[in-house]
Amino acid sequence: MSRYVYTEGLLHYRFSDQHPFNQMRLVLTTDLLKKMAVLSDEEMVSGRKATDEELALIHHQDYIEAVKRASIDQLDDQTCESYGLNTQDTPNFSDMHESAAWLVGSTLTACDIVMQGIDQTACSLGGGLHHGFQGRASGFCIYNDSAVAIQYMKEKYSARVLYIDTDAHHGDGVQFTFYHTPDVFTYSIHETGRYLFPGTGNYNERGEGEGYLYSMNLPIDAYTEDESFLSCFKESVQAACAFFKPDVILSQNGADAHFLDPLTHLHCTLRIFEEIPRFVKQLADTYCGGRWIAVGGGGYNLFQVAPLAWSQIWLAMKGLPAPTGQLPPAWLAKWQPETELALPKTWHDELQAYQEIPRRAEISEKNQLMLERVLQHYQ
């Protein structure tokens, strides 16, 4: 049995009603899985709040204190700016330290479930805030739950951790935290930084010192479609696994590579979100005794994409096939009144809005050349 970490505390991480980061995605996903009768109360586990000591596994103590003060509006603008707080992307909000600590603690709950052998797989889809740095907030991310989780598993379980990031944005905060570390491998496939925040993740970012070759980046071109994405992903992440031989996999599952995402420029469909978690599960079964922890991440089409994409993670963990046909009528009836967008009726994209990309062959060729350039170091 797999475990699904969920707690009301995850829903309080909310910058404002207008901000694109909205944990309503988590509510929609959880309800969809329940309406499908594939998520039981026995499989759900309450998360917890991370302690200051756990946050300090990665984050500097002065930064943690700054977040606490900003949470109660007691940090001046200049000091906020020095810590990346109260920016347009990451504005302050009441009790943000507590809310962010719930995200981290829930990811740590999933780690303990897997590393203690309670179950082979666990997910905490409220996490995946991969842009946070040790002493600075960035890109909607206050604390970096994935980085804390990796260090936590290193120290508590002496684990070699493979981090797989399929968000459309480069996982910069996680990568640079472990850039000199040989017992953590960070992998990221993402839209090229030429067009998209954070602008990092070039193919030649491979780690430094003892960590050289323990970071793999595959920047793919804007308007990349399913076939090219999946081909590049599967070949490169397979090579990463074979090279590193992890004890456990932690995957970050942004849902923003979809063509309907409002913040990115990739052109994939729901197909990639069916295949990515199932391939990661195969890798976990092959290389690390099935140990796999999954977190969420980006994904800013809250109603039409994120719930369908994230549901596939849980289904893959349980070994269930990708569903076809109609979405549960009860789910559609409950949530359609909550949005002006037309909810999808089926598990596969209704492609009236999908536009063929004239440069498909050129983009795919560029991605293939990038893949070959990356993999030459892992032959």
What's a concise summary of this model?
It is built from 12 helices and 8 strands.
What does this structure look like?
This protein has helices spanning 24-35, 52-55, 61-71, 77-82, 96-115, 145-157, 172-177, 226-244, 271-287, 306-317, 329-335, 360-375; strands at 3-5, 44-45, 121-124, 161-165, 184-191, 215-220, 248-252, 292-295. 38% of the residues lie in helices and 10% in strands. The longest helix has 20 residues, at 96-115. Helix 8 packs parallel to helix 9 (271-287), helix 8 runs parallel beside helix 12 and helix 9 (271-287) runs parallel beside helix 10. The mean pLDDT is 98. It has one domain (3-378): Arginase, Chain A (3-Layer(aba) Sandwich). It has twelve helices and eight strands. It is an alpha/beta fold and 379 residues long. The protein is globular. An eight-stranded parallel β-sheet has the order 2-1-3-8-7-4-5-6, with helices on both faces.
Q: Between the first and last Cα atoms, what is the distance in angstroms?
A: 36 Å
Number of E-state strands = 8
Going by CATH, what is the homologous superfamily? Histone deacetylase domain
Please give the CATH architecture. 3-Layer(aba) Sandwich
Give the SSE string: EHEHHHHEHEHEEHEHEHHH
Give the % helix. Answer: 25-40%
Q: Tell me the Rg in angstroms.
A: 19 Å
Stretches with pLDDT under 50, minimum 5 residues: none
Given helix and strand content, the structural type is alpha/beta
What is the 3D shape? globular
Overall pLDDT score? 98
Please report the number of helical segments. 12
Class, according to the CATH hierarchy? Answer: Alpha Beta
Tell me the strand percentage band. 5-15%
The side-by-side strand order for the widest beta sheet comes to 2-1-3-8-7-4-5-6
Note the main sheet. Answer: 8 strands, parallel
How many structural domains does the protein architecture include? 1
CATH topology call: Arginase, Chain A
